[in-house]
Design a protein that fits this description.
Rossmann fold; alpha/beta; globular
């Protein structure tokens, strides 16, 4: 029989959002959790060091595309829910190598859904009522907004503009279909841009932070006026926990930070915080390091999420403003430069050369 002490199975729990979710889960709920992660370049077990030796926490290195492994984990641990975070997630990487995104994000989600369906269908009726499949996705499935357009709502059509966004849109559709066709009790969340501690430095904020600290040019795509809705990762982790507990099967919930910012403004704010926190830096003012580079293909102009449904039905609202969250983020990276050095391996430096060469 499933109960509140039955574990969760989390995929991608060593990644940026995944590790924050796992840490938040043990801080807030503290019931067993099994973490399945392939440990690609963006997965980092160091993020989860506070859980080393903790009762109820199990880490398994493996691939969500491995059906036999997933089936064995479901049989062995009998989870009450699957929280599916494992994904390839960087737009620029999807432009260079889209195949891996389709394989992981689409086929991997299909494998996981089929394993979950088989596991769920064998349950007693009362356990089937309790079980949940929480699929974590992105606002990029909705495409791009113009200035003045209403923010994304759950009913908006999908208009993905990159291989990454298309792969996530496809996975969202698979999850919807497995609920409609088979009755699998799924919940989908679509989040805005996450930021915070322990984010791999290919994304905008940690990339700019790392380069600014070392006095390197700060790449600004095009005119820098692309607008993003920023969500502090700790707030997102809490939202996922609440969506798992209160989300209605078959529903989608948009998770946003109510923090629209143009990229140019975001980087300017970050540079000002570095000026304040590194008063002796030879690179002050850090804003002079900003350098315009060619825009990337299919670069969406604006994202904005209407998170009213999550507030109304889940009782969730972000705690951090962009100013408070950004200050926490900058402070963490300054205090954890050893973490940054560890994750920025030779492979990462080679990727940076590939992405920005000729821009």
């Amino acid at each position: 029989m499933l109960n509140q002490q039955s574990p969760l199975l989390v995929t991608g729990g060593a990644g940026f959002i995944g590790s924050h979710f796992v840490l938040d889960w043990f801080a807030a709920v503290d019931t067993p959790l099994v973490n399945l992660d392939k440990l690609t370049y963006a997965g980092n077990l160091r993020n989860l060091e506070p859980l080393a030796g903790r009762a109820g926490y199990t880490f398994v290195r493996g691939d969500i595309r491995d059906r036999a492994l997933v089936d064995s984990l479901l049989r062995q641990h009998r989870p009450r829910a699957i929280v599916h975070l494992a994904a390839e997630s960087h737009v620029d990487r999807s432009l260079v190598g889209p195949g891996e995104f389709l394989d992981t994000n689409v086929h991997g989600t299909f494998v996981l859904l089929e394993a979950a369906r088989g596991y769920w269908q064998e349950m007693p009726a009362e356990d089937r009522e309790q079980f949940r499949f929480l699929h974590v996705s992105t606002d990029e499935v909705y495409g791009s907004l113009k200035p003045g357009d209403a923010p994304f709502e759950e009913t908006f059509a999908f208009r993905p503009n990159s291989p990454y966004a298309a792969s996530k849109a496809a996975s969202d559709m698979l999850v919807r279909a497995w609920h409609k066709s088979y009755g699998l009790p799924t919940v989908v969340t679509n989040c805005s841009n996450n930021y915070g501690p322990m984010q791999f430095p290919e994304k905008l904020l940690p990339l700019v932070l790392d380069r600014a600290i070392h006095g390197q040019p700060l790449p600004i795509y095009g005119d820098g006026m692309q607008v993003r809705d920023w969500l502090y990762v700790g707030d997102h982790a809490a939202a996922l926990r609440v969506a798992l507990e209160r989300g209605k099967p078959g529903e989608t919930y948009n998770i946003g930070g109510w923090n629209e910012q143009a990229n140019l403004h975001t980087v300017t704010m970050l540079c000002a915080l570095l000026d304040e926190m590194l008063p002796d830096s030879p690179h002050r003012p850090h804003a002079r390091l900003m350098t315009s580079v060619a825009d990337r293909p299919g670069h969406d102009r604006r994202y904005a999420i209407n998170a009213t449904k999550a507030e109304r039905e889940l009782g969730w609202r972000p705690r951090e403003t962009f100013e408070t969250g950004l200050r926490k983020t900058v402070r963490w990276y300054l205090d954890n430069q050893d973490w940054v050095e560890e994750v920025t391996s030779g492979a990462y430096r080679q990727w940076m050369e590939t992405n920005y060469a000729g821009r």
